[in-house]
Amino acid sequence: MSSPPETWREISIRARANRDSKIPPSWLLKNPTTYSHLSDVTSVPRSCGLLTPLELDITESYTAPALVSAISEKKFTAVEVATAFCKRAAIAQQLVNCLTEIFFDEAIERARYLDKYLEENGKPIGPLHGLPISLKDCFSLPSHPSSVGFSLRAFLPDTTPATLPTLLLSSGAVLYVKTTTPQGQLSLDTHSYLWGRTLNPHSRFLTAGGSSGGEAALVAMRGSLLGIGTDMGGSIRIPALCCGLFGFKPTSTMMPKEGTETCELPGGRAAGLPVSVGPIAATAEECKWFMKIMEGREPWRVDAGVVPWRLQIPVKRQLKVGVLKSNGVTGLLPPYQSVMEEVEVALCSAGHQVIPITIPEYPKAFATAVGFMTLLGNRHVYNLLEAAGREPLSPWLKDRMKPKGPKERGLEEMVRLSHDKQQVEQKMLKELWDREGRSETKDSQEVVGGVDIILCPVAGHPTPGHDNWAGVDWTAVWNLLDWPVGVVPVRKVRRGELEMELGGKSVGRQDDACRKLWDPEVRQVFEGAPMGVQVVGRKGMDGDVLEAMERVAEAVRNIPRTQERKRESKI
């Protein structure tokens, strides 16, 4: 008589035990309960005593390009670097639960090979020589399943590596971990019943975002200098914001996606929003550096979905910035209103031209994006859950994805959505990017010809508590249009800002969800919550966005402290 199939609970217990067994006993935190009361755990790797002075130096003192140079110049061996980041990733896992697959032994062996290659050949094997790079769980690697948060997939072996990891390895990278995603990569909070909840290193009471939340949490702990995520509605940008990092969503046809797992029906991605693959890092410089390296690796030669491209970095000049603070779908809570004003002032002080803009087509564009996201319905997701013994939906999805929710819609609906997309895309192209087009008038700021970039929030609210991210109303439209977007962190919410009043009226259902987060009993969690801005560019002009991210970050760093004190005095 055969045994009954494992329940999702049993699979989860087995998967977590298997993962945790890959952490060497000497790398386990001594007396872990010592840290249970801490909200911000970013300093624990330095204070816990597990990392040597050399390992602290390696993981804290270098950017990714500087570390690759240090390895190539033999200041550090690849083994020393790999060991340092493996140990720090192990510490991060124990504090914020950010890993799904751990393969430290493979990483150390790979690093030994790279050291031998450098010694024998006198040159690095490639432009990423010796750099440990972490991967979102969805990237297929042989012997390391891509569960994407579903118990049913926890032990399904990947037999063929995804194109991107193969490209990274040929460039000299060291792969050592895969990171958590929410269930099906569908949530904006990284939680699944398979792996549990990923916590935000800056405050474990806050969400780490989703769906690349494990990547962002690991990078924020400096258990990785460079993490690779995916973005279909904000899944790189939202976690980057939550964890105080830079994230970049390229134009979708620039980076290889072949071999990445999803929760969709086979081929379903063609019916949804364009998916982008991109980096999460502590600096804009690292995002630009990584994309330049990928350009040189010519990914279009190995992935049919990638078109040939060149990253044209513009000559440094003053930017013409269109600032979007109202989209007709969701307003801004008071701290975010303050941040947007501060960034405007900082850009003006740096000599950039700042123009307030509105986009009348935005609500229609957002509705079209939602239409594409729900085009195939929920059936396939529920089938995966049922097959694992009725695995429940994660909390964020529970109230947003009903068993009898949107059904699959046919070709006619897809054609209608495509027509709507073409309409809004053409109008926004003319109004925002057309240098031959119309200019700002005294009576209307709806049409501004020839801006270099658009600056807007990542959300209407700062980083919220668990399961409280309101929606993709500030992010998904840029996926619909397939425009490149970067996130630049600005600052955290100040205590005094929690006393600010929320004026005005709601503009709709999405705004209602945002405004509820300002209820007195809810808003207290915002103290110290990260906030940032999106830098949006024209399709294919990714170099403009990467350069602008650095310029915005530079301006934000130079915000006069007197200005901050002045603003606080008004609260």
TrEMBL record:
* Name the UniProt record assigns to this protein: amidase
Write down the Pfam families for this protein, in alphabetical order. Answer: Amidase (PF01425)
**Which reaction is catalysed here?**
a monocarboxylic acid amide + H2O = a monocarboxylate + NH4(+)
Q: Which GO terms describe its molecular function?
A: amidase activity
Residue intervals of the Amidase domain: 80-546
Primary enzyme class: hydrolase
Active site residues according to the UniProt entry: K136, S211, S235
Keywords linked to the UniProt accession:
Hydrolase
Q: Which InterPro entries does this entry report, sorted A to Z?
A: Amidase_CS, Amidase_dom, AS_sf
Asked if the record carries the keyword Hydrolase, the reply is: yes
Entry's family note = Belongs to the amidase family.
UniProt organism field: Pyronema omphalodes (strain CBS 100304) (Pyronema confluens)
Q: Is Disulfide bond there in the keyword field?
A: no
Enzyme Commission number, as recorded: 3.5.1.4
